[in-house]
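Quick one from the shared queue. A colleague (R.T.) flagged Sodium/solute symporter as missing a structural entry in our internal table.

Convert sequence to structure tokens.
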Amino acid sequence: MNIIDNLTRLDFAVIILYIIILLGIGFWASKKSNQNGGDLFLGGRQLKWYNIGMSIWGTNVGPSMLIATTSLAYSTGLVGGNFSWLAFPILLMLSRVFIPRYLQAQIHTTPEYLSFRFNETTRDIVAVYALVSILVLWLGGTLYAGGIIISQMLGWPLWVSVTSLMTIAMSFTITGGLTAVVYTDTFQMILLIASSLFLLILGVNAVGGVQILWESTPANYWKLLLPASDEVYPWYALILGYPVLGIWFWCTDQTIVQRALGARSVYHAQKGILLTAGLKILDTFIFVIPGIICFLLFPNLKNSDEAFLTLSVAVLPSGLFGLTISVILAALISTVDSGLNSLSTVFTLDVYKKKINPTISKSKERRLGQWVTLIGGLSAIILSILLDDVDKDLFGLLQSIIGYLAPPMSAVFLIGALWRKANSKAANLTLIVGFVLCIGVAVADLGGFPHKGFFPPYLLMSFYLFAFLSAFMIIVSLMTGKDTEEGKFISLKKIYEQLQLSPTYLWRIWLFITIIMVSLYVFFN
């Protein structure tokens, strides 16, 4: 879908202005950052709650959210909203269970926490997994998907699109690290919310108002939970499977968690996560409902992936359309710069500093992190170009792949955080057995072996794998006994006392969000 002919001079001016402001904020934040390794990786642990909340949400809102969620809504209706609204109990768990543990341990990376809770072998296994997942999913996959979108919009070759995106992301990530990332993310997410609200309002107006939108849409399009007979998203698969993906994504993935690790206090970390939970309520309204609106206005699209851009071209005036292009750039760059910074952090602190040069100075640590960011960015460009030759439908498979990679990580982190008797032998075996098992099942399922439809929906399969690995870890822990080292498990009550946190801290706002979410699920079912 080449839309460059629809862009006016005003649209181009808006896009250029966006890029100038973005780079200006990025370089300002880089200058603001103190010149040491801690600032590159965790912003000197001085990040405020609103930067944390906006940046976490922005990292989540990549091209898969902006384009694919609208596409899913065009085809199936409101069911795509579950991937946003079911996140709130997982974010509550991140805020109340994982973040106090992470910040009490004063870690820089999530693999480092596992060395604190279990042993160095656990950390090494997860560090390798984290590097691969960041490079393939967060960088290569996102850059490939983003490059395809930009190529379709502007008619550029793929290599020009991905190189341009990566150049912008690297320009301030290399110099400013996490500080630059969260400041630019905050700006970009304000822009994203404003532009998406414009699209929603103008789209509703185009169909004739809220009442006509409601009455003209097929009734099943307004159902969040689909019948058990649905082949892809039966209600029980979503309820059972999403938490497995959610724990890995929200509570253990370095790219997400790193923002909270850079908080100036537990208060700012937890309040930032609370802001993310509030913003997730918006997702369904500003990303999903526009897909339903596009279905009413253009019911015969050959490719539902074009729903977002088709609606934008149809309802947005000159200038606002350029703003929408800027929003797509914002979503892409936000995800890519987050992946770059996390890749740099994990390699520098979990691999190089831990295994190669433990005495590295702060200045050399920072310089190494910058080189890793540069090399990681160049590698992601090459990988994204190679992905285009491997499988044209690869981006559509990424969500399923995540569903199969999540179970071992979710099992080890969750049981390790909640159960004192979980030990390092069980954790390491669970990770190794889990990765082999999950990758094997993923290859078989995605490859149609022994035949298509043999396995249940990937969300349900993810739950089955998680349940098996959790039971496996518990049994091995009971059979092998406690770890010999003392103090590896600290109760949450003791951690809250050490951090001087009240158990009722921020509970009232979480309760308010819970009431909103329950009400929405009742209304839309």
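The domain at 4-390 is CATH 1.20.1730.10 (Sodium/glucose cotransporter).
The chain has a mean pLDDT of 87.
Added to the table.
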